[in-house]
UniProtKB/TrEMBL annotation:
<dbReference type="Pfam" id="PF13599">
    <property type="entry name" value="Pentapeptide_4"/>
</dbReference>
<dbReference type="InterPro" id="IPR052949">
    <property type="entry name" value="PA_immunity-related"/>
</dbReference>
<protein>
    <recommendedName>
        <fullName>Quinolone resistance protein</fullName>
    </recommendedName>
</protein>
<dbReference type="InterPro" id="IPR001646">
    <property type="entry name" value="5peptide_repeat"/>
</dbReference>
Amino acid sequence: MISAQQLSLDQLEAGESYEKCHFTYSDEKLSFAEVSLKNCTFDQSDFSHSEWDNCVFEGCEFLNNTFTESFFYQTEFRKCRLMGADLSGSTLLKSTIVDSKADYLNLSATKLEECSFLDSSLQEAYFQEVKIKKGLTFQRCDLNGTDFLGTPLKGVDLSNSFFDSLNVDPRLLKGCQISIPQAAVFVGLLGIKFKE
């Protein structure tokens, strides 16, 4: 493990763990495999077109950072701050966001395959025009105000999360998994009114 050092992003080595390190800028295309970053900080805020294979981020901050058109395979974000981060146009395969603050996260026009969000806040996040393959799971997440417009929700499990409102396309709800209490919210989303 490498700890408490200042390094360039170009110095990240495959199979290495870094803790409390500070990383300066890189002018090269970012491509990493089997790297663990715990409580690290970054000068760079634009990670567009980067590749992350079997990587773990824990306790890192990416507030309003850009990861557009990036590729994540079996990558996990744990206890991270991802508010306002832009991952639009990216591909996430078998990746997870756990116990993270990700309000306003932008995942629009992404491809998600076997991804999950656990114990995270995703208030007013953007999942517009997302292509979902082999399911998408939200467990104990705050999805209040999350925007799923243009995204088919077949195979998406919302049943163990909470929200008072969502933006959804009623034509694309078929196959979405919700709990019985959430059904009342969906009835309201569809413009249906209860009469006693």
